Amino acid sequence: MQTLEPRKIPRQGRSRATVDAILDACAEGLAIRGYEPLTTNAISERAGVSIGTLYEYFPNREAIAAALAGRAFLRMVDVMRGSLRDCIGQRMGMLEGAEYMLLCGLRVLVSERAVFRVLVYQAPFVFQLPVVREARAALIDLAQDVRTVAGDRLNLPMGEHDAWLIAQMLSSAMLEIACLDATDEQRRRMTRGLARLTYRMAVGCDSVTGGRPARRAAPVVTLAP
């Protein structure tokens, strides 16, 4: 697994720009040609860097693809953290907040849809590589932060463990929704359904949906501390 990790982490602005150019070139190549025909030579040429420079940072195309997916997941989590602050500041209800956060995160994944569709179906092993697993772990940390903010308004008997499970399910579901051949409205409807199911798991009962109360009325709770 060590040979599939980046060789060097960029610290300075110039090196970060070089790595971003390599990742962007990989994304373009994946979208145009798919995974199998993609080579490190093609990536370096598209990025405008020498193959030697590319190999300073990455040992192979697998490591580049993993870093690309990891970057997208970290962007998603950053956006969702910002949306959590919005939820708290605007005192959104739990269901409204869950839907808002998921939609914000989904927009990031949809913007990378061409890349993720290739990786999911042609190179699924990429999502098990350390750099991607570490990036997805950031979503777990976010779920734990949400749990801490909500406190006893959630009904999670095994709090930390339950939040971990929910975050894992959300990560996979959001990726699948982003990769679907669907309209924006269809994705919004699916995301609303995902938010409703998340609410049910976290609070322990259904929300009021579609103008009709569910079997058990939901308590009035907000994300604000």
State the total count of DSSP E strands. 0
Per CATH, the architecture of the domain at 68-203 is Orthogonal Bundle
Number of helices: 9
CATH topology of the domain at 68-203: Tetracycline Repressor, domain 2
Order of helices and strands: HHHHHHHHH
Structural class: mainly alpha
Percentage beta strand: under 5%
User: How is the quaternary structure best described?
Assistant: single chain
CATH homologous superfamily descriptor of the domain at 68-203:
Tetracycline Repressor, domain 2
- Radius of gyration of CA atoms, rounded to a whole number: 20 Å
| Overall mean confidence score, pLDDT | 87
Tell me, briefly, the overall form: elongated
Largest sheet: none
Q: Spans of 5+ residues with little confidence (pLDDT < 50)?
A: 209-225
Helix percent reads 55-70%
CATH structural class of the domain at 68-203? Mainly Alpha
Give the end-to-end Cα distance, rounded to a whole number of Å: 42 Å
Question: Would you write up a description of this structure?
Answer:
- By secondary structure, this protein is mostly helical.
- The protein has a domain at 68-203: Orthogonal Bundle (Tetracycline Repressor, domain 2).
- The chain has helices spanning 13-33, 40-47, 51-57, 61-89, 94-111, 113-122, 130-150, 159-179, 184-203.
- It is elongated, with a radius of gyration of 20 Å.
- The termini are far apart.
Entry summary:
The chain has 225 residues and is mainly alpha-helical. It has helices at residues 13-33, 40-47, 51-57, 61-89, 94-111, 113-122, 130-150, 159-179, 184-203. The chain has a domain at 68-203: Tetracycline Repressor, domain 2.
